[in-house]
Amino acid sequence: MIGRRAFTLGLASLLGGCATHHQSGPATGLPSTSKGYRPPPDSDEAGLWLAVDKVEQAQKRSPSRIRDQAANALVQDIICRLAGDRCPELRPYLVRVPEFNATCSPNGMVSVWSGLLLRCKDESQLAGVLGHEIAHYLRRHSLQRMRDKREWDDMMAFMQFTLQGPLAKTMWDISGDVRMASISMFSRDHERESDEMGLVMMADAGYDPFACAETWRQLIDEDKAGDVKHDFNFFLSTHPATKERIETLQQLAEQRGRPKTSPPNRLDQAIRHLRRGFMEDEINQGRFKRTEKLLSRLAADGNDPAGALYYRGELYRRRNKDGDEASALGFYHESCEAADPPAEAFRGVGLIRWRRGEAELAREYFRRYLDRAPQAGDSDMIRKYLSGA
Amino acid sequence: MNRLISLAIILLIASCTPYRLIPAGKVEFADQGTVETPIDWNWRPFDIVHTWTLDGPNLQEMIFHMGVKDGKTLMEVLDVEAGFHPLLVWFGKVPDEVSFRFHKRMTEHEIVDLFTASMSKIAGSKVVSTQLAPATLGGKPGFRFEYAFTGKDQVRRKGFGVGAVFDEKLYLIHYVGTEIYYYDRNQADAERIIQSFTFKEKDKGKG
């Protein structure tokens, strides 16, 4: 029914030459589920759950799964703070993928990507994203979208057989465009609803609601640095325009106000030992501008400046354009001077100095590297440099 | 996306490439070098490298990078910038992507870092080097390293490689196999092959 209503509305809008602008607010659709909900076994929803259950089985065994106890415990705890008595239904899986993303499947599987963990400045930002995903779950958005798409496909199949005459192709093409616009619009409504619900959930749990808009600003800065466009397409965009999302989230945060007490912030403690591996994943992507922006922000955030500076040096060294070696050397040096520097930062200085023929200075840094990492796998090679070979 | 499609097409074409038997004995790599193999192998070209296997590339493989030039990637498929439109390059509007390239002034660490970063792209999962030590290849000073990764197929693999920069070009031979059974079964053969490597006569004396 939703599909047909949307079709009529979409066709009318299209023929009238205007686009509908949706305000933030609850989307039409299914009622939310209650605690412990399981779909009826003979329903399409049960089929959807079954398909996702298989994905979850693969996720459990995946080599990219992060099994770190502290990080998993934190994400589980945030989910419980946000979801309340629905917490037992939600099962987090942290996965090592260097992109900003999280998902919550209809069966309660929550995937949190390492790129998201790295990019979150604090626990409130992570809670904002998880709240958004949990809202998708509670409002059964996947099921709604599946049914909407199926109804549209039925409608198109029906029209294929019934449309006849000279205008048939034109009508068919228009219907196809309206179908795309309707499905995308429906998806955007879900995103708006999840943005709003997620913000309410995280604010209710004591987190800072202003973190939600801030997360988006950070992402836009990163994408702008990499010349990634955020063009909004009425027919194809499944998410609202980013500017609109930021404005809405900012307004909602202002309505809620700052939390009365300091929000919990255990993120740094929980992922500190993983963060440098996540940074390495980022530079392995080979995306210079975006990664540069990200690492410079991370260095400024103060969570692990020494790590961020070292990987910034690595990023420049690997690119190796004019002046990059000098930039790399500068970042390695800055890293060495910061608190808790990676041993590799000293090696980085040593290698560049060695290549430049500054053997004594190089050896000094090689010695400092070995002092910090005497059992390093490359210690034989470093000792060769030290012996003057 | 275009890069992924290109990679998929190349892999598809490569998967259709017939193998050729490499009998035990002396094997020449054009004008670059020779090795002696104690056993037969199955050879196929992949991109710009030579690959040998006994039971299939997913089980064990020897890969020969023979004479990578300054400024080049380890495989052509890894050179993302080569696909940029000249006009985009002219106007400085190229995608935010850089290729990891060999440079003749690289230290041993940097070459191994280039190798693991490049292999990570090919394997689709993180490749980690575990050991790095001085070694020789064809009598030239070089390095030896070990590495490991778990592929998308969730199979754990390990490998080792020996390389050297000679005449401003990188020569690198590595052997990789499944951690269970296949790596161990032919590691000694791979070691003997690498030890037997000699640069071509015309290059002697340049290093």
UniProtKB/TrEMBL annotation, chain A:
Q: Which Gene3D superfamilies match?
A: Metalloproteases ('zincins'), catalytic domain, Tetratricopeptide repeat domain
Which spans of this chain does UniProt mark as TPR repeats? 343-376
- GO terms for MF: metal ion binding; metalloendopeptidase activity
Q: Which PROSITE patterns match?
A: PROKAR_LIPOPROTEIN (PS51257), TPR (PS50005)
Please tell me whether the keyword Metal-binding is annotated for this protein.
Answer: yes
Q: Which keywords are on file for this protein?
A: Hydrolase, Metal-binding, Metalloprotease, Protease, TPR repeat, Zinc
Q: Name one Pfam family in it.
A: Peptidase_M48
Family named by the database record: Belongs to the peptidase M48 family.
> What protein does this entry describe?
Peptidase M48 domain-containing protein
Source species of the chain: Magnetospirillum moscoviense
UniProtKB/TrEMBL annotation, chain B:
Tree of life domain: Bacteria
Q: What is this protein called?
A: Lipoprotein
